């Protein structure tokens, strides 16, 4: 019985499956913002970013995915750089939440798990049709609760927390050739045959208010552009991920922190 | 129809050279300072490192320092000090008989396995098995095999459509993939056996694990009133060889390896070192609604010496089973309660079962006794009401 | 026919999930779980059109991962609290008409340990409480599923040999405390018959 060697990260798989399964062919991209939300204008805002969940690999002809270390490493670095440069919403400062130890690590893991459940719920029951809750068709009321203030403490203070997840499986040459061959064969067979897609590029991002814990904004896209393996592509990806992100009106009276 | 063939065939041919060669890693992955070699191994390791970040923070990791230190000692004795340092062993709370090994040396051992393994030698066989997966890079070979099987399956399927004889070829290739996976398991079984016997452990212990698992499956089936699945052949799509096969080849090879120098089984050490988590493991098992397997596991733990905690656990099993077993439960609680090592919860169980068995006064008195012994019981309010005759 | 088989066999696209539906629950007295159990909810609840088992109905405010209110409308003798994956080989524990509050707590614990693979299930409280006008029970528990700690409160009683029960479960962080007052108000409004 023992020796079932690789058990993939179940939580990730669940999120990813939900992200993909919940997206009907006609609506790949959706964003929502908490109604009536506006960034405060009395001070510059600081956004804390959770370590982006980034996966990059290749998709073989038969559809199996192979993780690629270099692509993943580059993608994470590129996305982090692009997020900092993008200054989402006009944030004065973007900081990454450092790895934690002990109790702080447990708090971090707890909120990651809760955000996972909230994100999953928004994807499956709010943003996309099919399994939507009728009372949630409008509005955008989700929260991690005011306990999130603890997260800000562990990262030297912050006003908002940003979660970013991307998954990129680049169709290999073999996959692209199979796609072409399948199309030819299907045409030859009078239109009867499989449709082969090449590559898989999905992602989502969410913003949390670190005082109330409320989910302010979320955006999900099952067919994203921008090649995260290079800096320019990652910048385009981040722009897409941050689509419809709320923008802070000009900060009155308060100068940015020194 | 035939005319359409060439286009697809050309594509098939074109695809072959495109599968760019990857480096073949060499050297021991458990050597100090080893870094993965080639695209595939590096990718696997990076992914496994991400998963380990989450695993480290998991709520279900058993962190008892003494237990973890002991498990590591057994691992190091089995595979050698030079190699065991590369392995990170995580004891995961899950009442299942399993363990797994990732490409980077992350070994997950599930608590249900510790409850079933009978001594240190059996544990060493399992740790040696998992280490062999790591040392022989089975994850990498497995990933490549799976990828190749699905590639061939997809190409032939598309070609079959082009040839107007559509058929899904993927299962044909998966059969060979699973056959390969079973070969890996045999290799790990024998690798583990040689490692543990090399460390002085009794080699036949490895075969014993499978004999007992088969007995447990029989006991489970008896408890359920169904036929035992111990010899069920699950067909070509399974990743592991049948239990009976593993039991047999491990016995054959184990006997050959038996010498006066390989006689250590470490029964007492095993029991003593795991004692702190024993009650939790037993509790997790008996709450699974699997009467036959649970009773078999308890009897194994007792080996004829029924301690207070084991009698209590067995009584709890019977109490949960419904009316006819309430009298057996009562008898078992009574056997437990006269012993010095009876858990406090024995008074609760006996009280509850006496109320069911029509001995209301004694049952209420027993519950009152329990509440005196366990004033902070979570079900105090409910038990008090029952003790008051409500 | 071929096209269909091909498409499925190749599994090149993720299959669409079975479409489950949700309906708004009107804020008036409603009977639930096709039984004589009735409650008066506040506005904002959604009813899942799928029945997990014959005598269970599920509601949610935000989504079943974040808050779930399950109504058990008369679980009969020897029936389980959840769907059995394999009735013969992996049976779930069954309800018995002679069960007391402590037995119901154990029934829920065993069921959740198996169906949600939650080995760290802990019962936090078992106490007598009125349900639908008669003496019943109130239970509290906690467990981890998929690294998320969840809490539950169950209230109910046995009437005519059947188990009537309402269970609220939600993540321990925020959602349990946030949703419990609304769930408890519904439990308080319960009537049988």
Which features characterize this protein?
heterotrimer, A: 258 residues, alpha/beta, 8-stranded mixed beta sheet, 20% strand, disordered C terminus, C: 193 residues, alpha+beta, 8-stranded antiparallel beta sheet, 3-stranded antiparallel beta sheet, 36% strand, disordered N terminus, signal (chain C)
Note down, in words, how this protein is organized.
Chain B: Its cofactor is Zn(2+). Chain B: It comes from Sphingomonas endophytica. Chain B: Pfam families: Peptidase_M48 (PF01435). The complex is a heterotrimer of chains A (258), B (390) and C (193). Chain A has 258 residues and is an alpha/beta fold. Chain A contains 6 helices and 8 strands; from the N terminus they run αββββαβααβαββα. In chain A, strands 1, 2, 3, 4, 5, 6, 7 and 8 form an 8-stranded mixed sheet that branches. The N and C termini of chain A lie far apart (60 Å). By secondary structure, chain B is mostly helical. Chain B contains 18 helices and 3 strands. In chain B, α13 packs antiparallel against α14 (308-319) and α15 runs antiparallel to α16. Chain C has 3 helices and 11 strands. The longest helix of chain C is centred in the middle third of the chain and has 15 residues, at 101-115. The model of chain C is unreliable at 1-18 (pLDDT under 50). Chains in contact: A-B, A-C, B-C. Chain B binds chain C through residues 54, 58-60, 93-95, 111, 154, 157, 161, 166, 168, 170, 224, 226, 229, 284, 287-289, 320, 322-323, 352, 355-356, 378-379, 381-383, 385-386, 390, and chain C through 2, 5-6, 9-10, 88-89, 91-93, 96, 98, 100-103, 105-106, 109-110, 113-114, 117, 119-121, 123-128, 135, 137, 144, 147, 149.
CATH class group of the domain at 37-173 and 200-241 in chain A:
Alpha Beta
Largest sheet of chain A: 8 strands, mixed
In percent, how helical is the residue content of chain A? 25-40%
Biggest beta sheet attributes of chain C: 8 strands, antiparallel
Full CATH superfamily name of chain C: Mog1/PsbP, alpha/beta/alpha sandwich
Going across the major beta sheet of chain C, what is the strand order?
1-4-5-6-10-9-8-7
> Radius of gyration of chain A, Cα only, in angstroms?
20 Å
The secondary-structure class of chain C comes to alpha+beta
- Percent helix range of chain C: 10-25%
Distance between the termini of chain A: 60 Å
Largest two-chain interface: A-B, 44 and 67 residues
